[in-house]
Design brief:
Length: 322
């Protein structure tokens, strides 16, 4: 799809910068310029398309939809609605509070909370640009499955008493939903592209920059030995290291791409990315204000195990995905 861009950037690096692409420096420069342009193009297109869909699902309507579903169906709907939300893990927390105080089952709210930061249009666009449609599609499916399964497990534990009492005492205020025309939705989508790209471009360039350094300078043999698919503990270590960090998928995907190109297992890289986005330390600090430590530990444990299993699944399917 982007062969023309690859050739154009190669000409730029070799004829303008006077650095052969085959060298470490040339390869790093090519990686940075090529990935930056490619990702921004797809990011803008994908954000516009999903934002148009999202214009039909403001938070108030999302809450009303979830109120109509119970059981596993509610978990599935919550995870699917999490896909079309632009929230990172921290900004998902206020929505989570709104769901709880509206009486939506706890397990269903956690399905949303898990899926929302992991799977979104920006992550899908970058995955599509970096790895192709197979990995992008499997990532979305597994992200939804992690949300559904995690929510079901948490719901089955009946831990409603682990939510701070004041959350249940908050009253929901009915918000009148505004009817939008097609032009309104187009303007909303264009504004979303400007807003989201404006907020995340720095994280994106930092991630691509780190990826470029890994691409050009990281020792492939060492990474393949300790973080390759043959190391049975690599996925677990990746998740443990990912949890204390805070980033969104935009910053971590270019790093994952560079690691995979150096021989790191695809499941290991994906597990690191999922753990960083879904189980970040800032999110835990925010959640501490609305749920008790026992439920936080349960949430991290269940989600962490699910992400580890997804990592091993990706490693097993690597021959089909790449």
């Amino acid at each position: 799809m982007f062969d023309w861009l690859d050739q154009l950037v190669t000409l730029l690096v070799e004829n303008v910068f006077k650095v052969p692409v085959a060298t470490r420096l040339g390869g790093s420069i090519h990686f940075f310029i090529y990935d930056s342009i490619k990702i921004i193009i797809l990011l803008g297109l994908m954000i516009f398309a999903i934002s148009y869909v999202r214009s039909f699902f403001p938070p108030e309507r999302t809450k009303k939809i979830l109120e109509r579903f119970g059981g596993i169906t509610g978990n599935i709907m919550a995870s699917l609605l999490g896909i079309v939300t632009p929230f990172c893990s921290c900004s998902s927390v206020p929505i989570f509070i709104g769901f709880v105080e509206a009486g939506i089952p706890l397990g269903v709210t956690f399905s949303f909370l898990i899926t929302s930061p992991i799977v979104n249009e920006a992550a899908f666009a970058i995955l599509l640009a970096s790895f192709g449609w197979k990995i992008a599609l499997v990532y979305v499916i597994t992200g939804v499955v992690v949300g559904v399964v995690g929510g079901i497990f948490i719901g089955s534990l009946k831990m409603e008493n682990q939510v701070e009492s004041y959350v249940y005492e908050m009253s929901s205020r009915e918000v009148e939903l505004e009817a939008l025309t097609i032009n309104d939705r187009i303007r909303f989508s264009i504004q979303n592209v400007k807003d989201i790209v404006g907020r995340v471009w720095i994280y994106l360039l930092i991630g691509i920059g780190i990826g470029a350094l890994i691409h050009g300078w990281a020792p492939a043999e060492l990474l393949a030995k300790y973080a390759g698919p043959e190391n049975p503990l690599a996925v677990i270590v990746a998740v443990i290291f990912g949890i204390p960090l805070y980033s969104n998928a935009l910053g971590t995907i270019p790093i994952a791409e560079a690691l995979i190109m150096k021989g790191v297992g695809i499941g290991t890289a994906m597990a690191f990315m999922m753990a960083t986005t879904a189980l970040s330390l800032p999110e835990m600090i925010l959640l501490k204000k609305v749920i008790k430590p026992k439920l936080i530990i349960t949430f991290v444990s269940i989600t962490g195990v699910a992400i580890i299993l997804v990592g091993y699944l990706f490693n097993e399917l690597a021959h089909w995905l790449i």
